[in-house]
């Protein structure tokens, strides 16, 4: 039976939200688990799509920013330096520097989820109502954690489409 795990070291709603993030992290790792380096960096037949590597980096980048918003209600400069910009000069998702492998990209995201876990252990039910700055607007901590899970799942669909196109291209080129 599938369910979201309610942890004893977190407030119930916090735990539910964290479990959704963790569930999607595990699902994402499963989806990409057998990708080759070439497939990881493939941008589709016309080379115009974001690669799976770009999407994995993007997910970690967005998530670490949410963790820091929740921790301190701001993203410190050193996080900007480590994770880089959200977009490149052309407004697209940046390429991961030095083309890291799948394990490194997944480890980076696991680190972010571990950071979230530490923060979630300190949150109370009332903390979920706290407002944070988000893209010139406001969002609650509750919405931010939910958004991390939702955003991950959203890009999983893009990765699945890339995988399908990759397989079709392999079959077409094998003929």
UniProtKB/TrEMBL annotation:
Protein name per its UniProtKB record: YkkA
Cross-referenced Pfam families: DinB_2
DinB-like domain ranges (all copies): 22-159
Organism listed in the record: Bacillus mojavensis
Gene: ykkA
Domain of life from the UniProt record: Bacteria
């Amino acid at each position: 039976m599938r369910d979201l795990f309610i942890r004893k070291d977190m407030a119930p709603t916090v735990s539910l939200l964290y479990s959704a993030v963790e569930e999607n992290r595990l699902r994402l790792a499963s989806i990409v688990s057998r990708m080759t380096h070439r497939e990881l960096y493939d941008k589709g037949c016309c080379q115009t799509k974001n690669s799976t590597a770009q999407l994995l980096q993007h997910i970690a980048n967005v998530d670490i920013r949410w963790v820091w918003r929740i921790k301190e209600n701001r993203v410190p400069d050193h996080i900007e330096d480590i994770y880089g910009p959200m977009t490149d000069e052309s407004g697209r998702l940046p390429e991961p520097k030095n083309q890291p492998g799948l394990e490194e990209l997944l480890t980076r995201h696991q680190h972010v989820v571990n950071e979230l876990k530490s923060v979630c252990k300190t949150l109370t039910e009332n903390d979920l109502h706290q407002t944070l700055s988000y893209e010139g607007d406001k969002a609650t901590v509750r919405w931010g954690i939910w958004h991390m899970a939702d955003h991950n799942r959203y890009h999983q669909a893009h990765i699945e489409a890339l995988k399908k196109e990759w397989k079709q291209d392999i079959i077409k080129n094998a003929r």
